[in-house]
Write a structure and sequence with these properties.
single chain, alpha/beta, 2,3-Dihydroxybiphenyl 1,2-Dioxygenase, domain 1, 4-stranded mixed sheet, 2 helices
């Protein structure tokens, strides 16, 4: 078994695609009015337009992106420049080694320098 896809429900597809496309530095594999999908390693990371009336702020889904430490800081700085905000900074916490941010659409995502 493996995780094939994780996705976020978004309110504004164009704004969300611009944010994630620039942050991930890659173009989507698939893109339509209601669905956009990126390849991130072996997992598909998708954006689904919330045009069916769900009320939400952000999401309970928190994708975790793993990096070597120098690359994490480059990605973190790019995320902040694109409007992401820090929710929890545990980069200097020996047990956590990660930082949680929110995208402009309100979705949390985590960057870690994890050492399984």
């Amino acid at each position: 078994m493996r995780i094939r896809t994780t996705y976020l429900k978004v309110k504004d597809m164009q704004q969300s695609v611009r944010f994630w496309e620039t942050l991930l530095e890659r173009t989507p594999n698939r893109k339509s009015e209601k669905w956009t999908e990126f390849s991130v390693g072996e997992v598909r990371f998708g954006l689904l337009l919330n045009d069916f009336g769900d009320e939400f702020t952000g999401s309970g889904c928190v994708p975790v992106f793993e990096f070597d430490v120098p690359d994490l800081h480059i990605f973190l700085n790019r995320a902040k420049a694109l409007g992401a905000t820090v929710v929890l900074d545990g980069l200097n916490d020996e047990t956590m080694k990660s930082i949680v941010l929110t995208s402009p659409d309100g979705h949390e995502f985590e960057l870690c320098a994890c050492d399984d």
